[in-house]
């Protein structure tokens, strides 16, 4: 009987250890998965204006989100989609007829979907970093770029060095460089950080 | 011939009782099996562990609440056992005026439904400014008459001569309790531990009445607030909630049965 009890205790001790590991792992997973957003707040008395980068395009349509405070299991700041009838777009701007207590999502570190847990950040100009710009059309307004030094240019790809706002958000850098919606911007630092999280790929990448 | 007939009817009775027992076991196990199957069943892929990933890995909120609830329950259990042992010894082995009357009131308290004491407890906690705090669950949970009753019955079975001899040897009450009476009532103690833990682990009314903030709700209550869209997560969470009672029962089921059998001379 004692042996059986010992086995039961060992089994549940293993489960407890597993739960402790899961607890610490889940905290870091949540931290990595939380979308960082730059929000635009308004007083609610006047129209709110956002840049076109606030529209998140998926396969079906474009989505605009506001920040709301969740309750219960959905506690924390969450993204809530705004109805198509509540905003309109004019050229590169989006206008809203009402304000939001916690603001509207202007830029995000990754794709936002309805109900996502988000963290509001206040972007600030960080240290200089390398960025790879892939422009779909030959319409770069390089002369309008300030504080940007082009390191290399090959076809539609441009490697440049600049002090972009941190944390890195693609739409934000696009707006800073006056790039079109179809172009892409990659932060080399972000790519490096991503590869560090995949140790085997990172060592392979470093050897190359 | 008659003997053969009797043997056949006994065999039939045995088969019937076996089937009946099997039927009862199946009925008891059915909810657990349904929970287990539903937690991994998904229409498209048949088997999916997404719900387990959501509960155990994607966010720490379920596990945080689990550990918090476990902490509160262990606190309640430890205090309840402490109070039950002392009160049980008092009722079983000490002489003081009004003892029988107090024990009678204790018995009345035991048969009263929880909801009756909920309002007086609420008023008391409000006056003590403890509403909305963890103490509002721990403090009333300390005084549960069933634990005192079980320990009283168990201590009554301990021979008074042993205690008298210990007293002659110069043992004080704390030493008698720790070295003689409690070790002789291990089964009852385990039973009180188990029952008080299960009672506090499954509490629903008290947190709803005494706590306002959802963040403070124990997992037993918070589970009901998982949105209907996340019902698979809710089911996976049920598995998590089942673990502590399952552990206690698989470890101490023998002690629990022994503890409930009162009045044996020790």
Q: What is the helix fraction of residues of chain B, given as a range?
A: over 70%
**Category from helices, strands and their pairing of chain B:** mainly alpha
Radius of gyration of chain A: 22 Å
Rg from alpha-carbon coordinates of chain B = 24 Å
Q: Helical element count of chain A?
A: 4
Q: Specify the structural class of chain A.
A: alpha+beta
Q: Which sequence of SSEs, written as H and E, runs from N to C of chain A?
A: HEEEEEEEEEEEEEEEHEHH
Q: What percent strand of chain B?
A: under 5%
Strand line-up across the major sheet of chain A: 13-14-12-16
Distance between the termini of chain B: 50 Å
In the sheet with the most strands of chain B, the strands line up as 1-2
Low-confidence stretches of chain A: none
Oligomeric state of shown chains: heterodimer
Q: What's the count of strands of chain B? A: 2
**Major pleated sheet of chain B:** 2 strands, antiparallel
> Which descriptor suits the 3D outline of chain B?
globular
Name the average pLDDT of chain A. 82
- Sketch the topology of chain B as an H/E string, one letter per element: HEEHHHHHHHHHHHH
């Amino acid at each position: 009987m004692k042996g059986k009890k010992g086995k039961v205790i060992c089994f549940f001790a293993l489960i407890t250890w597993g739960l402790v590991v899961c607890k610490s792992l889940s905290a870091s997973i949540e931290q990595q998965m939380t979308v960082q957003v730059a929000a635009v707040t308004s007083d609610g008395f006047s129209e709110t204006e956002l840049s076109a980068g606030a529209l998140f395009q998926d396969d079906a349509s474009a989505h605009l989100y506001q920040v709301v405070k969740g309750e219960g299991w959905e506690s924390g700041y969450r993204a809530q989609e705004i109805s198509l009838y509540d905003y309109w777009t004019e050229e590169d701007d989006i206008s809203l007829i009402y304000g939001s207590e916690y603001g509207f999502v202007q830029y995000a570190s990754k794709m936002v979907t309805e109900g996502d847990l988000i963290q509001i950040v206040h972007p600030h100009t960080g240290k200089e970093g390398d960025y790879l710009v892939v422009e779909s059309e030959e319409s770069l307004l390089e002369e309008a770029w300030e504080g940007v030094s082009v390191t290399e240019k090959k076809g539609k790809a441009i490697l440049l060095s600049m002090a972009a706002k941190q944390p890195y958000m693609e739409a934000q850098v696009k707006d800073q460089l006056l790039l079109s919606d179809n172009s892409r911007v990659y932060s080399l630092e972000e790519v490096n950080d991503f590869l560090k999280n995949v140790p085997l790929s990172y060592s392979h990448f470093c050897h190359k | 011939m008659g003997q053969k007939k009797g043997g056949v009817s006994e065999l039939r009775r045995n088969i019937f009782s076996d089937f009946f027992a099997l039927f009862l076991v199946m009925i008891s196990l059915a909810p657990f099996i349904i929970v287990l199957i539903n937690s991994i069943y998904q229409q498209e892929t048949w088997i999916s562990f997404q719900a387990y990933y959501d509960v155990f890995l994607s966010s720490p909120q379920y596990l945080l609440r689990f550990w918090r609830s476990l902490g509160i329950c262990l606190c309640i259990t430890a205090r309840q056992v402490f109070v039950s042992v002392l009160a049980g010894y008092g009722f079983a082995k000490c002489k003081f005026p009004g003892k029988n009357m107090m024990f009678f009131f204790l018995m009345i308290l035991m048969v009263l439904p929880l909801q009756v004491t909920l309002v007086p407890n609420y008023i008391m906690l409000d006056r003590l400014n403890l509403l909305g705090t963890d103490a509002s669950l721990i403090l009333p949970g300390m005084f549960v008459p069933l634990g005192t009753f079980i320990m009283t019955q168990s201590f009554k079975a301990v021979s008074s001569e042993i205690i008298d001899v210990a007293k002659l040897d110069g043992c004080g009450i704390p030493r008698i309790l720790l070295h003689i009476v409690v070790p002789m009532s291990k089964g009852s103690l385990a039973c009180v531990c188990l029952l008080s833990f299960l009672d506090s682990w499954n509490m629903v009314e008290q947190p709803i009445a005494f706590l306002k903030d959802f963040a403070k709700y124990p997992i037993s209550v918070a589970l009901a607030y998982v949105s209907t869209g996340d019902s698979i997560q809710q089911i996976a969470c049920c598995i998590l909630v089942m673990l502590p009672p399952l552990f206690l029962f698989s470890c101490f089921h023998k002690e629990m049965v022994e503890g409930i059998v009162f009045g044996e001379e020790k």
